[in-house]
Amino acid sequence: MTILSDAPEINIVSFIRKFTILRKAGRYFRGKCPFRVGEELGETLIVDRKNNRFHCKSCGEKGDMVDFAMKIYGIERERAIKILNDGGIAPTERFMKRFNLKLT
Length: 104
Prior knowledge:
- With 104 residues, this protein is of the alpha+beta class.
- It has one domain (12-98): Zinc finger, CHC2-typedomain (DNA Primase, Chain A, Alpha-Beta Complex).
- Helices cover 28% and strands 18% of the residues.
- It contains four helices and five strands; from the N terminus they run αβββββααα.
- The chain has helices at 12-16, 65-73, 77-85, 93-98, and strands at 22-25, 28-31, 45-48, 53-56, 62-64.
- A five-stranded antiparallel sheet has the order 1-2-3-4-5.
- Helix 2 (65-73) crosses helix 3 (77-85).
- The radius of gyration is 14 Å and the shape is globular.
- The N and C termini lie far apart (34 Å).
C-alpha cells in the first residue's frame, strides 16, 4: 500500500505560476484566475504562500494546493496528491482540452 503525503515539496506559488502569472502584492500574490478562461476580470486570484492557500474573489474557488490541482486537472484527491509529490505537472486529456494544448 502506497502512502501519499498531503504536504508536497513544491510551494503553492510555484505550482499556480505554472497556470497563470502571479505578482507580489504585500504578503500575498495576485493573478488572473485560471478557472475563468476567456473572461477578463482582472487579478481576482489571491495566493497566500504562508498559509499555502488560494482564493478567487470572482468565482469563489478556494483551498490548498491539492484543491487547486484537483480543480485544474479535473481529478480526484489521491491522484492530485501523487501529481504534486511528483513535481506538479500531469497533462491529463481534460486539462489539455481546457487550454487547447497538444502534446508535442
